[in-house]
Amino acid sequence: MVNKKQYRLGHIFGVFLLVIVCTFVFIVPVSSAQPSRTPNFLQIAKLLPGPEDSYAGLFDEAAIVGAEYQALKLDGLGDVTPEELGQLVKDNPELLTDEPGVEVAGTFTATSDDAGVALFQGLEEGIYQITEKSRRVGDVPELLSSPFLVIVSGTTTAVRSKIQPLTVTKTSHEPEVQYKDEIVYTISSGVVQPDVNGKISKAQVKDSLDGALEFKSVSNVVISNLDGDVKLGESDYLVEASGQDVVVSLTDSGLTKLSKRRANHPETTLELDLTATVDKMVLGNTRIDNIAFVAMDGYCGFTGQDKDCIDSIPAVESGVASFHTSPFGPIEGIITGIIGLLITGLGIGHLGKMLLNFVPEQAQPAPQHTDVPSKASDRWDGGKLGDLAETGASVLGVVAVALLLILAGWWLIGRKRRNEDEAELSSLEGEK
């Protein structure tokens, strides 16, 4: 007969076996239903610029070692192929900002090794936003990668980062202009990423005007990104004009606004309008060139000691051209241009002065001959003898202008008569 003690031990042992059996019955099937997760790797290679880049020679291996990358896993974008990533960013530029507009499922960081390769380990498959963090302090050159999206799938995904260039565009609202017309140029530039302290130390725009233009004003200085536009006030920038060069520099207050707007917004732009006047009469179809240069942190500037920099990235440039047109026909335009050039070369005020000097003063008695020249012998009709050549040349200039004006008038009258004759002939033929 089994005693109570043996019964209890048998009962406990039976319960223990039952628990083990239940564990295998319920847990094992659940475990077998879970998908196997293979850890994924992402390699980002950072390379030095090639010899064809403007950055060439400014950086060594230290620029690619210790670069810190951040990866954000973006959920809710659906099934996207690598070929569709570019269009996805164009349609949704906020995906490259710190507010991508979709759920962020995780944040990861990695630092590049001696070979310039940053390795992310244990990532889940999906779409990741990759951003390189700035390491510079102040106005120094930096080899920084552009933010981008990458699809992590399979065991290892390897990509190469691209250097983030400073882009500049310049447009003209008046492709064809005439004498005394105003031209409005719009200059738009990308903005460098702030340094580790969140600051941008320099932002300058230089415009080199064509010789036929005269600077008038700078207006509508605006910082733009996905969060909206911020128009800078007159205290936020300084305009310096010297000859044909105009330099617009952001002041401390303007740089503070620019730094705040640019933080985590790579799409940020700085834009301004520059107005100039066509102040010279030139021949029709003459090309009027205008070039803009932009310099920010790490780029050669245009004022002070920064003009002589040798260890910075060359300023980025963008040009645009307008064409001078004549209100007359081709031949009349040439004649008008020649007249304009003569008048511009001689000067209207100078012509008037010469015409006045040409009027003789009251007749003076003939001077007596002496060994010492008298003051009267040094003058002729109110002008110095030394001015005779200048006066003669001026008279010839006036005569040339008069002849050209007569020629232009003759041409215009002749052309008008020909047009009237052609119109009359056409009307007669129509009546027949």
TrEMBL record:
Key words of the record = Membrane, Transmembrane, Transmembrane helix
Q: Mind telling me what this protein is named?
A: Prealbumin-like fold domain-containing protein
Which Gene3D superfamilies is this protein grouped with? 2.60.40.740, Immunoglobulins
Q: Does the keyword Membrane apply?
A: yes
| Protein's GO biological process | carbohydrate metabolic process
| Top-level taxon of the source organism | Bacteria
> Could you tell me which species this protein originates from?
Corynebacterium phocae
Transmembrane stretches, by residue range?
A: 12-30, 393-413
